[in-house]
């Protein structure tokens, strides 16, 4: 469903601030794979997600989604293939619009636009049913402005918006980092439920090593713009945070440089 072939990206090339962010990244995800991504500061975690989303062009390599090379497509052209949830709960939604209006925008993405905006009774019933699955009581607040929701509620709505059309690939970029631990845990469980029930292919960047171990069927670790560890199945289930840190040191030859990850 997703394939990265020798993807490379250098920022500020030829200057004193040159940074080789991605150095020949190769990654293959089958349909239904839920992959967590961990790494130290500047490892290339979010850079990989931005490369897939088309935030900027890569220097070389190929990015295939369901067999289609999208490396030459712009960010908005790739949007039809992707769903994305950002770290900031304020992103991904229109704060001054109602919950049902935000869901309608997401549901109609990529479809032919008309002058008619009215949400039909059928659509409203579908949105209500989808919101009920969140178990947050939002199905009874469909006309509330999204900007009035808590961070966790907003991320939950953003998750629905990102998956309402069943994207080819779902990108989760530290989407619980700005939430308190209890809310983050709820959003993570909700993410896993949506991914599992819809058989979505997902990449989740996280700074929390335990979450990277607990969620998904596969874990990759990055360092200096490269994938240095790729584990799945029983090997992943048997991992501990201490084992991950040890593996990182053995492979990279350095200590793990990410205070947030170590503290969490």
Word description of this protein:
The chain has 264 residues and is of the alpha/beta class. 35% of the residues lie in helices and 23% in strands. It is built from 10 helices and 10 strands. It has helices at 45-53, 75-78, 99-107, 121-132, 151-163, 181-197, 209-214, 233-237, 241-252, 259-263, and strands at residues 2-11, 19-29, 34-39, 60-65, 68-69, 82-85, 169-173, 201-205, 218-223, 226-232. It has a 6-stranded mixed beta sheet with strand order 6-7-8-3-9-10, with helices on both faces. A 4-stranded antiparallel beta sheet has the order 2-1-4-5, with helices on one face. A hairpin with a 2-residue loop joins strand 9 and strand 10 (226-232). The two termini are 31 Å apart. The model has no long low-confidence stretch (mean pLDDT 87).
Features of the shown structure:
264 residues; 10 helices; 6-stranded mixed beta sheet; globular; 10 strands; 4-stranded antiparallel beta sheet
Question: TL;DR?
Answer:
By secondary structure, the chain is an alpha/beta fold. 35% of the residues lie in helices and 23% in strands. The strands form 2 sheets. A 6-stranded mixed beta sheet has the order 6-7-8-3-9-10, sandwiched between helices. A 4-stranded antiparallel beta sheet has the order 2-1-4-5, covered by helices on one side.
């Amino acid at each position: 469903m997703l394939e990265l072939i020798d993807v490379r990206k250098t920022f500020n090339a030829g200057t004193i601030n040159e940074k080789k962010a991605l150095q020949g990244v190769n990654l293959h995800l089958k349909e239904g794979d839920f992959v967590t991504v961990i790494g130290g500061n500047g490892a290339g975690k979010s850079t990989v997600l931005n490369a897939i989303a088309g935030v900027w062009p890569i220097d070389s390599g190929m990015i295939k989604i369901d067999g289609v090379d999208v490396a030459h497509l712009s960010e908005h052209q790739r949007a039809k293939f992707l769903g994305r949830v950002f770290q900031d709960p304020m992103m991904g939604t229109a704060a001054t619009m109602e919950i049902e209006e935000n869901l309608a925008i997401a549901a109609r993405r990529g479809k032919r636009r008309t002058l008619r905006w009215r949400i039909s009774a059928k659509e409203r019933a579908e949105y209500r049913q989808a919101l009920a699955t969140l178990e947050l009581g939002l199905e009874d607040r469909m006309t509330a402005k999204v900007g009035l929701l808590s961070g966790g509620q907003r991320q939950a709505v953003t998750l629905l918006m990102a998956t309402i059309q069943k994207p080819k690939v779902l990108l989760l970029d530290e989407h619980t980092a700005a939430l308190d631990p209890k809310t983050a845990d709820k959003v993570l469980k909700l993410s896993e439920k949506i991914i599992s029930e819809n058989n979505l292919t997902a990449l989740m960047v996280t700074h929390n090593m335990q979450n990277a171990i607990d969620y998904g069927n596969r874990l990759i670790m990055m360092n200096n713009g490269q994938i240095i560890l790729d584990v799945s199945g029983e090997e992943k289930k048997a991992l501990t945070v201490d084992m991950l840190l040890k593996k990182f040191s053995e492979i990279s030859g350095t200590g793990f440089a990410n205070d947030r990850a170590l503290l969490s």
